[in-house]
Design a protein that fits this description.
globular, 116 residues, 6 helices, mainly alpha, single chain, transmembrane
Amino acid sequence: MIYLWAFLIGGLICMIGQICFDVFKLTPAHTMSLLVVVGAIVDGVGLYDPLVNFAGAGASVPITSFGNSLVHGALQELKTNGWIGIITGIFEVTSAGVSSAIIFSFLAALIAKPKG
């Protein structure tokens, strides 16, 4: 059943992104920013972790989880390190994902030749 919920919740998040493209004519950058902010707000009110527990990868893989990670790290470090933790928590939680995306993109660019 977890696979079904992951598919439905992940598909719903992707459908919202597609609606932003098709109906509201938002650019990919605006759509990604909107979904990150929505993920951050949902985590800020404490609803993203229950969503991840319910839907698994359907909620933890889409771009909304990046906003979740930013807020989650900032709030976690705020509790342990005070106000400076807001800034350090953002980098601490997301640095591995961002670094791996940069490294793998670089490696892909070395291997693949773009058509143009």
